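Continuing the batch. This is chain 6 of the set; chains 1 through 5 are on the previous pages. Same settings as before, nothing changed between runs. Recording input and output for traceability.
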Amino acid sequence: MAGKTRIQWVSHPELSAAHAAYLVATRAQCNDQKTEQSLIQPMTEVNNRLFASAIDVSQFWQQYLLQILSDVPMEQACGVALLSAGANEMQVDQIAKAIVNRLADARLAFNHRYPKLAEQLDLRARPLRERWETYGPGLLNHVGKQIWGDSPPEEWWIPNVTALMVQPIRGGDGGCDASSARLWLEAMLTDVDQRVPEALRVAWLVTTMAIDNYARKTSRDLRLMRPWSLVSVPLVLSAGRELELVRGDELPIGEAMKLWHFGDDQVAETVSQWWKGQADSTAPMPARLKRLNELLPERSTRVDVEDAV
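Output for chain 6:
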């Protein structure tokens, strides 16, 4: 089952620039101060223009990064993002022209900061790629067995996935888009946290895409989408423990969710308690997920573009 998932690793300087612009524009954590300083002015000008035009800033950046992830050219990506964020169709061209100019300035500054990025990303991605080739099939195999036993649905795993490698700006980051079978990762040379190796981030993203595809196709209860997405974390960590990538008696669920920028402390604690409580259950996973859904707070999971894309 896991052997049917093949990952093609691709360095992506364009997405690297867009990812950096997103982080600076949304005031997210940025560990590269020189890059952050070079992008602050153009990103501030973009946000000011969006605010002045009564456009949803958060929605714009989410959609813009999603379009770049799909290799849509900057100008077209900007137009799509503007419309998605509520821009008036009559004003899109005018607004887009001003924003694209600032985005181009930001990309130029980023490229000046990393003039040989494509070659550097190839080198940086090698350790993670090699570790995935060693552990990846086993991780996915264990995840699948935890959900389905020996009877997985047909085409549970996406057969071909493209992994886009970007310049590390956040000290470890990643996201995915199930509809395009693409994930992206900051090309970290080493594990950020030894308790949660970067290979597990890859397994989590691949699992997230599989769950997303399956849940949307089969679940009539849309409320289960949320617990389905959350259960991916302990599933992957448990698989990692089987392969001795995760040590200790308790799974580092809170640490993983923080590292993967997924959910908050309250949600992590709820998932941890639920996971312990259902450890000996023989009920089907959908039935167990209903209990998790009952335990979750009403408004909990902070899902931004870094989680969903």
